[in-house]
Amino acid sequence: MTKSAFNIKQQETNLTSKIVVGLERVSEAFKVLLWEHAKAIGLSPIQIQILIFIAHHKQEYCNVSHFAQEFNVTKPTISDAVKVLVNKGFVVKEYSSTDSRRYSVFLSDIGQDIVSQTEGFANPIQKELNKINHSDLEMLYKSITNLIYGLNKTGQLSVQRMCYSCKFYESINKNHFCHYLNQKLNDKDIRVDCAEFELNK
Protein backbone atom coordinates (compact mmCIF):
# COMPACT_ATOMS: atom_id res chain seq x y z
CA MET A 1 0.00 0.00 0.00
CA THR A 2 2.80 2.42 0.87
CA LYS A 3 4.32 1.99 -2.61
CA SER A 4 1.18 3.19 -4.39
CA ALA A 5 1.64 6.31 -6.48
CA PHE A 6 -1.59 7.56 -4.92
CA ASN A 7 -0.19 7.42 -1.39
CA ILE A 8 0.04 11.05 -0.28
CA LYS A 9 3.14 10.45 1.83
CA GLN A 10 4.96 8.78 -1.06
CA GLN A 11 4.10 11.65 -3.37
CA GLU A 12 5.89 14.05 -1.05
CA THR A 13 9.29 12.52 -1.84
CA ASN A 14 8.77 10.53 -5.06
CA LEU A 15 8.75 12.46 -8.34
CA THR A 16 7.46 9.56 -10.46
CA SER A 17 4.48 9.18 -8.10
CA LYS A 18 3.68 12.86 -8.59
CA ILE A 19 3.90 12.43 -12.36
CA VAL A 20 1.60 9.37 -12.31
CA VAL A 21 -1.01 11.33 -10.35
CA GLY A 22 -0.54 14.30 -12.66
CA LEU A 23 -1.10 12.13 -15.74
CA GLU A 24 -4.25 10.74 -14.13
CA ARG A 25 -5.57 14.28 -13.65
CA VAL A 26 -4.87 15.10 -17.31
CA SER A 27 -6.62 11.87 -18.30
CA GLU A 28 -9.66 12.94 -16.26
CA ALA A 29 -9.75 16.30 -18.05
CA PHE A 30 -9.57 14.49 -21.38
CA LYS A 31 -12.50 12.24 -20.43
CA VAL A 32 -14.60 15.15 -19.17
CA LEU A 33 -14.09 17.11 -22.39
CA LEU A 34 -14.96 14.06 -24.48
CA TRP A 35 -18.10 13.35 -22.42
CA GLU A 36 -19.29 16.94 -22.81
CA HIS A 37 -19.12 16.71 -26.60
CA ALA A 38 -20.66 13.23 -26.60
CA LYS A 39 -23.70 14.28 -24.56
CA ALA A 40 -24.26 17.34 -26.74
CA ILE A 41 -24.84 15.22 -29.85
CA GLY A 42 -26.25 12.06 -28.31
CA LEU A 43 -23.28 9.77 -28.87
CA SER A 44 -21.04 7.85 -26.48
CA PRO A 45 -17.37 8.83 -26.07
CA ILE A 46 -16.19 5.67 -27.86
CA GLN A 47 -18.48 6.46 -30.81
CA ILE A 48 -16.94 9.91 -31.14
CA GLN A 49 -13.44 8.44 -30.88
CA ILE A 50 -14.25 5.96 -33.65
CA LEU A 51 -15.55 8.70 -35.95
CA ILE A 52 -12.49 10.90 -35.37
CA PHE A 53 -10.19 7.91 -35.88
CA ILE A 54 -11.84 7.03 -39.21
CA ALA A 55 -11.46 10.64 -40.39
CA HIS A 56 -7.69 10.61 -39.96
CA HIS A 57 -6.52 7.06 -40.66
CA LYS A 58 -6.17 4.58 -43.50
CA GLN A 59 -9.23 2.49 -44.26
CA GLU A 60 -7.25 -0.68 -43.54
CA TYR A 61 -7.34 0.36 -39.86
CA CYS A 62 -11.07 1.10 -39.88
CA ASN A 63 -12.55 -2.22 -38.85
CA VAL A 64 -13.92 -3.78 -35.67
CA SER A 65 -10.79 -5.81 -34.87
CA HIS A 66 -8.46 -2.84 -35.14
CA PHE A 67 -10.81 -0.49 -33.25
CA ALA A 68 -10.91 -3.00 -30.38
CA GLN A 69 -7.10 -2.99 -30.19
CA GLU A 70 -6.81 0.77 -30.71
CA PHE A 71 -9.20 1.68 -27.89
CA ASN A 72 -8.47 -1.33 -25.64
CA VAL A 73 -12.08 -2.51 -25.49
CA THR A 74 -13.81 -5.76 -26.50
CA LYS A 75 -14.96 -6.52 -30.03
CA PRO A 76 -18.63 -6.78 -28.93
CA THR A 77 -18.40 -3.27 -27.44
CA ILE A 78 -16.97 -1.93 -30.71
CA SER A 79 -19.53 -3.85 -32.79
CA ASP A 80 -22.36 -2.26 -30.78
CA ALA A 81 -20.82 1.21 -31.18
CA VAL A 82 -20.38 0.76 -34.94
CA LYS A 83 -23.94 -0.56 -35.26
CA VAL A 84 -25.28 2.66 -33.71
CA LEU A 85 -23.11 4.78 -36.03
CA VAL A 86 -24.38 2.83 -39.05
CA ASN A 87 -28.02 3.16 -37.93
CA LYS A 88 -27.58 6.92 -37.46
CA GLY A 89 -26.09 7.16 -40.94
CA PHE A 90 -22.72 8.45 -39.73
CA VAL A 91 -20.67 5.59 -41.21
CA VAL A 92 -21.09 3.17 -44.09
CA LYS A 93 -19.94 -0.44 -44.16
CA GLU A 94 -17.81 -1.78 -47.00
CA TYR A 95 -17.66 -5.57 -47.01
CA SER A 96 -14.57 -7.54 -47.95
CA SER A 97 -14.62 -9.07 -51.44
CA THR A 98 -13.02 -12.26 -50.08
CA ASP A 99 -14.91 -12.67 -46.78
CA SER A 100 -18.52 -11.47 -46.49
CA ARG A 101 -18.27 -11.46 -42.68
CA ARG A 102 -15.50 -8.89 -42.64
CA TYR A 103 -16.02 -5.21 -43.32
CA SER A 104 -14.41 -1.83 -42.90
CA VAL A 105 -16.24 1.45 -42.34
CA PHE A 106 -15.90 4.93 -43.76
CA LEU A 107 -17.56 8.23 -42.96
CA SER A 108 -20.74 9.43 -44.63
CA ASP A 109 -21.21 13.14 -45.31
CA ILE A 110 -23.19 13.43 -42.07
CA GLY A 111 -20.41 11.59 -40.23
CA GLN A 112 -17.87 14.08 -41.55
CA ASP A 113 -20.05 16.90 -40.21
CA ILE A 114 -20.11 15.24 -36.77
CA VAL A 115 -16.30 14.97 -36.83
CA SER A 116 -16.05 18.69 -37.65
CA GLN A 117 -18.21 19.43 -34.61
CA THR A 118 -16.36 17.16 -32.18
CA GLU A 119 -12.70 16.69 -33.13
CA GLY A 120 -11.68 19.86 -31.31
CA PHE A 121 -12.81 18.49 -27.94
CA ALA A 122 -9.21 18.44 -26.65
CA ASN A 123 -8.49 22.04 -27.68
CA PRO A 124 -8.55 23.33 -24.05
CA ILE A 125 -5.69 20.94 -23.23
CA GLN A 126 -3.76 22.04 -26.31
CA LYS A 127 -4.36 25.68 -25.38
CA GLU A 128 -2.73 25.12 -21.99
CA LEU A 129 0.21 23.29 -23.58
CA ASN A 130 0.74 26.25 -25.92
CA LYS A 131 1.48 28.38 -22.85
CA ILE A 132 4.55 26.26 -22.01
CA ASN A 133 7.86 27.44 -23.46
CA HIS A 134 9.13 25.51 -26.47
CA SER A 135 12.18 23.89 -24.88
CA ASP A 136 10.09 22.55 -22.00
CA LEU A 137 7.53 21.22 -24.49
CA GLU A 138 10.28 19.38 -26.35
CA MET A 139 11.48 17.77 -23.11
CA LEU A 140 7.89 16.84 -22.22
CA TYR A 141 7.32 15.31 -25.65
CA LYS A 142 10.49 13.25 -25.45
CA SER A 143 9.39 11.88 -22.07
CA ILE A 144 5.90 11.09 -23.38
CA THR A 145 7.19 9.24 -26.45
CA ASN A 146 9.53 7.17 -24.28
CA LEU A 147 6.66 6.41 -21.89
CA ILE A 148 4.33 5.34 -24.73
CA TYR A 149 7.01 3.11 -26.24
CA GLY A 150 7.76 1.52 -22.87
CA LEU A 151 4.07 0.85 -22.16
CA ASN A 152 3.71 -0.70 -25.59
CA LYS A 153 6.72 -2.98 -25.11
CA THR A 154 5.33 -4.23 -21.78
CA GLY A 155 1.84 -4.78 -23.20
CA GLN A 156 -0.10 -1.98 -21.49
CA LEU A 157 -0.68 -0.25 -24.84
CA SER A 158 -1.65 -2.70 -27.55
CA VAL A 159 -1.37 -0.36 -30.53
CA GLN A 160 0.96 2.48 -31.35
CA ARG A 161 2.27 3.75 -34.66
CA MET A 162 5.36 5.62 -33.55
CA CYS A 163 8.84 5.74 -35.01
CA TYR A 164 10.55 3.45 -32.49
CA SER A 165 8.54 0.40 -33.65
CA CYS A 166 8.62 1.22 -37.36
CA LYS A 167 10.65 -0.69 -39.94
CA PHE A 168 11.86 2.62 -41.39
CA TYR A 169 13.36 3.78 -38.08
CA GLU A 170 16.98 3.31 -37.08
CA SER A 171 18.97 4.58 -34.12
CA ILE A 172 22.46 5.52 -35.31
CA ASN A 173 24.91 6.48 -32.56
CA LYS A 174 21.89 7.44 -30.40
CA ASN A 175 20.55 9.62 -33.21
CA HIS A 176 17.16 9.02 -34.84
CA PHE A 177 17.00 8.27 -38.57
CA CYS A 178 13.98 7.65 -40.82
CA HIS A 179 14.68 5.64 -43.97
CA TYR A 180 11.25 6.49 -45.40
CA LEU A 181 12.02 10.22 -45.28
CA ASN A 182 15.74 9.52 -45.69
CA GLN A 183 16.65 12.04 -43.04
CA LYS A 184 17.83 12.44 -39.48
CA LEU A 185 15.12 13.18 -36.91
CA ASN A 186 15.28 15.31 -33.80
CA ASP A 187 13.42 14.20 -30.66
CA LYS A 188 10.60 16.60 -31.54
CA ASP A 189 10.30 14.97 -35.00
CA ILE A 190 9.45 11.53 -33.58
CA ARG A 191 5.87 10.74 -34.56
CA VAL A 192 3.37 9.18 -32.17
CA ASP A 193 0.87 8.32 -34.91
CA CYS A 194 2.51 8.15 -38.33
CA ALA A 195 0.58 7.65 -41.57
CA GLU A 196 3.58 5.87 -43.14
CA PHE A 197 4.14 3.54 -40.18
CA GLU A 198 4.97 -0.09 -40.93
CA LEU A 199 5.64 -2.47 -38.06
CA ASN A 200 9.24 -3.58 -37.68
CA LYS A 201 8.83 -7.38 -37.52
Secondary-structure arrangement, i.e. CATH architecture of the largest domain: Orthogonal Bundle
User: Which blocks of ≥5 consecutive residues have pLDDT under 50?
Assistant: none
Order of helices and strands: HHHHHEEHHHEEE
Query: Which CATH top level class of the largest domain fits?
Result: Mainly Alpha
CATH 4th-level superfamily of the largest domain: Winged helix-like DNA-binding domain superfamily/Winged helix DNA-binding domain
Provide keyphrases for this structure.
ArsR-like_HTH, 2 domains, Arc Repressor Mutant, subunit A, 10% strand, globular, single chain, 201 residues, DNA-binding, mainly alpha, WH-like_DNA-bd_sf
List the helices and strands and how they pair.
Elements lengths: L7 H6 L1 H27 L3 H12 L7 H7 L4 H13 L3 E5 L7 E5 L1 H10 L4 H7 L4 H20 L15 E4 L2 E4 L4 E3 L16
Antiparallel strand pairs: 1-2, 3-4, 4-5
Helix pairs in contact: 3-6, 4-5
